[in-house]
Amino acid sequence: MLETLLTVFLGIASFFVLHRLFGRRRREGEPPLIKGWIPFLGKALEFRKDSHQFLQQLQQKHGDVFTVLIAGKYMTFLMNPLLYPAVVKHGRQLDFHEFSDAAASATFGYPTVRSEKYPGMSNKILKLYLLLQGPALNSLTQTMMGNLQVILRHRLASTQVARPECDWWEEGLYQFCEHVMFEATFLTLFGRPPQANKDPKIYLERLRWIDTLRENFRKFDAMFPLLIAGTPIGLLRKTKSIREKLIKFFHPDRMKEWTSPSEFVQSRTELFQQYDTLKDMERGAHHFAIFWASVGNTIPACFWCVYHILSNPQALTAVMKEIMNVIGDPDVEYIHNHNITLTREQLNRMIYLESAINESLRLSSASMNIRVVQEDFCLNLDTQYSVCLRKGDIVALHPQSTHLDPDIYPHAQQYQFDRFVEDGKEKTEFYKGDQKVRYYRMPFGSGATMCPGRFFAVNEMKQFVCITLLMCDMQLIVDQQEARLDKSRAGLGILPPANHITFRYRPKRQLKGREEGDRNE
Ligand code: HEM
Q: Does the keyword Cytoplasm apply (predicted)?
C-alpha cells in the first residue's frame, strides 16, 4: 500500500517538476495564465463543488478572459457574453468536433469518426441530424405523443392495481420523470423491440427489458463525468462490462428486430452499414451514444420544469390555462379514454409553457461550450481587445455565468415562469448595461454546433408537461427541502437534483380551476 502511494506521489511530483521546467511561458497578447500546482489541485476540487462560483471569483480577480491549466490543457475562459459573437464567428479556427469526437469515442467505445478509415462519415452524420428537425419533427412529435400516453396510462393503471387502498400515490419526482421519459424517448427514436410488443396487459413482462436498460444506463451515466474527463474505462470497476451490455443492446442484429424506428435512427443504421471498416459492436456503440444524448439532459430538464411549475401556483395556473386553450377544453372522461393529439403547431403556440421550460433550463444548465484552437491566431474580441491563442489550446464559454448574471436577468436566482414572454410574444431582447446580448440563453450551445436535438427536446418537454398535467393531479409534498442542484456534474449539461423530491399524484379527477385549490387540500 505504502509502496503504491509512494509511486503515485513520485509520478505526480515528477510530472509537476517537468511541467514547471518545460511548461510554456506566457507570450505577448495571451490572457492572464492562472497556474501554480498545489493551488491547482485545490482549485480542481473547488471547480467540481461549484463551477459558477469558482469561475466568478477568477473573473473578479483576472477580468473577463483568463487561462487556466486544467488536466494538462490550457483552457481560456470567456466570461462575458458580449464577447461570444467573436468565438461563434471563428468556427473554423475554434472547432467543436475535434474535442467532441475524441471525447465521445473514448466515452462510448467507438473509433474516432474523423479517421481516414471512415471517409466522409463525419459529414454524413452531421447531415442526418436534420432528421431531428424541420418536417421530420412532425412525425417524431406524433409518435412521442402516442408513446407518452400509453406509458402514462399503463403506469396509472398498474399503480391503481398495486395500491388500490391509496387515494394519492407518493413517488420520487425525478424517478417518475426518468421512467416516463426514458421509455418514451427510446420507443420514439428506436422503435419497439419484440419484448415491447407483448400483450399490454402483461405489463410487468413489458417492463423488464426497459428496467434493465435503464438500470445499466444509470450506472454508466454515474461514471460519465469521469469518462468524459478522460479516465480510462478499465480503472472504473464494472463500468466497462456495463458499457458492453449497453452496446450489445444496440447491436445491429438486435436492432433489425425492432419495429418502426424513427427515420433518424433508420438512416443512421443504413449509414453505418455502408462502412465495412466499422464493426457491429462499434455500430452499437454509436447507437448507444445517440441514445445517451437524447435522454441524458432531457430527463433532468423535465424534472426541473415540472418541479418549478408545481412549486409556483401562478405558473401552474397559467400553463394549465394555456394547455386548455390550445386543446379546446376536453372533459376528464375524454382525457382518460382517448388519444390526445397535439400537433407541432399547437405546441408552438404554448408560449407560457415554452417560457417556463426555458426558465428552468436557464437555472439548471451548466454546460460548457468547448472549442479547440486549430492554429496560432489572435482572436479579436471587440474593437479594442484581442487575445492570442495557440494551436491545441481550448477556448471555453461558460453559459451558466450568463444565465445567472443579475445585469441580464434581474433576480437571477429566482424562477419567473414568464421571464421569456413580453406583450404576448416570446421575449428575445436582453441587455447587459446598455448593450444588447445576442447569446443570452445557451442551454443548447451556440452557433453552428448548437445541439441538433434542441427542437425535439423542447417539444418532448412540452408534451411531457401537457400529458402529465392533463392526466394526473400532481402536488409536491409539503415540508420537504427545496430541490438543490447537484453541482458535481458541472460542465456537462443539465444538472440533476442533489436531493430527493417527493410528489403525490393520482388520475385526474376534474380539469378546470382545481390546480390552485388542490395545493392546499
Ligand atoms: C434538454 C435537453 C438537451 C440539452 C440541454 C442539450 C444540450 C446540448 C449541448 C450543450 C450540446 C453541445 C453544443 C455545443 O457545444 O455547441 C449538445 C450537443 C448534441 N446534442 Fe443535445 N441537448 C439536449 C437534448 C438532445 C436530444 C434530445 C438529442 C437527440 C435526439 C441531442 C443530440 C445532440 C447531439 C447529437 C449533439 C452533438 C452534435 C454535434 O456533434 O455536432 N440532444 N446538446
A: no
